[in-house]
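Below is how a single chain appears once it has passed through the pipeline. First comes the sequence as given, then the structure the pipeline wrote out for it. We keep one example in the README because the format questions we get most often are answered faster by looking than by reading.
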Amino acid sequence: MRRAAVAVAAGAMAVSLAACGSAKESGDKSDSSSSAKKGDAIKVGLLLPENQTARYEKFDKPLITKKIKELTNGKGEVVYANAKQDASTQNQQVDTMITNKVDVLIVDAVDAAAIKNSVQKAKDAGIPVVAYDRLAQGPIDGYTSFDNKTVGKTQGEALLKALGSKAKDGKIVMMNGSVTDPNAAQFKAGAHEVLDGKVNVGKEYDTKEWKPENANSNMEGAISALGKKNIIGVYSANDGMAGGIITALKAKGLKVPVTGQDAELAGVQRIVAGEQYMSVYKPYAPEADAAAEMAVALAQGKSLDSVAKDKVDSPTTKGVPSVLVAVTSLTKDNIKDTVVKDGVYTIDDICTSAYKAACDKIGLK
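Resulting structure:
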């Protein structure tokens, strides 16, 4: 697929690589599986973190389920639960999965540190764990995500491009994600690497639970503190928060470049309308497929060598077999060549009556 200029290679790692991590450091992955190899009739526990962000129910869950069915000739069962942004609930869900004797867990942690003891419980019960999208702590057996630091760099580079020669004519606001999400720290670090010294950061927030309403409240506070005439752009770590930010900006008659991430439909439509400058398109199918492939292999007592070519370190585990997927900067210029071409959305999905004129204007037909 033809990618935008800022498409990045998955090898440009954002997390610390552990090419020299030994088998002893990372744990003997075969030990975490049940001693008897299983066939296709496996039970996979899938735990996703929240339903505020559209991607989890719309893409991740069905894609993972579909791939597991394909890999197990239709015999694999997926047992699903969503924690709705509550770490305690997710820990209870792990307990339930252990009680139900799933063969493997795929966990997208609400809180990467808070899940640590539950991951250990699963390990002690002989259930291997694949960390999905967020690098959970504890003795995980595999990990798949995107190059998260590069996501932040991609956002920062796009914001600088949008600001052009006016990058230091005022102040930007940085709206980072939740402190409980290790990815948020990596997005933030990547963005700072690009933006520091090139813009003036007037206000910066770590947004509780990634919630759009919290981003909206933070943005209102930033406008009050800085004065609307002094704000020239907003770094938003994802599309959901961008929506809350743009609502606050509109209420004060402000229109400045705003970044995003996840290529949510509402975000893409805001890009079409010129309200949001960009998003980061993260193709979910390769990430979901990698998680499914690792889960099935672990449940069947097989090695991850053929699936995971990279290794990363978490704060608690060295040399975790990993798959990192490339990302693309999504702007009004490449919507057709990314989310439409990949079948994420149709032009009819994007260009509803409210956006038809704007779609026509940018040639999205």
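The chain is about 40% helix and 15% strand.

See the next section for the split statistics.
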